[in-house]
Amino acid sequence: MNDEQVRIAGTAPVGVDLEAGKKYAFCVCGRSQNQPFCDGSHKGTRFMPHLFTAEKSEKKWLCMCKHSKDIPYCDGTHKTVQAEP
Question: Where in the sequence is the domain holding 28, given as residue range(s)?
Fold first, then answer.
């Protein structure tokens, strides 16, 4: 696999309890061992984490396929992508 391709970390979203005002670094490359958040595994690639701040404390469903049009949130795209073998 080319290091410049997004890796599908999962084929279903993951529910995460976000804290109001807290800053998060969402993994967009799919390489992190701390999914769905960044652990720096993107180093050496073109990828950078998606930084966001939770607007309120609530459970949100975050994208694991890394192809959502609403990153970091799941938009159902995982239903149309295939995980690597």
Answer: 1-85
C-beta separation of 54 from 82 below 8 A: no
Residue 12: closest CA among 69, 61, 50, 70:
61
pTM summary value: 0.90
pLDDT in tens, 7-64: 999 999 999 999 999 999 999 999 999 999 999 999 999 999 999 999 999 999 999 9
Q: Residue 37 in 3-state DSSP?
A: strand
Q: How far apart are CA 81 and CA 43, in angstroms?
A: 25
- Of 4, 11, 68, 53, nearest to 31 by C-alpha is 4
Domain count, the chain: 1
CA 30 from chain centre, in angstroms, equals 7
- Angular region, 66: left φ>0, alpha ψ -120 to 50, beta rest: left
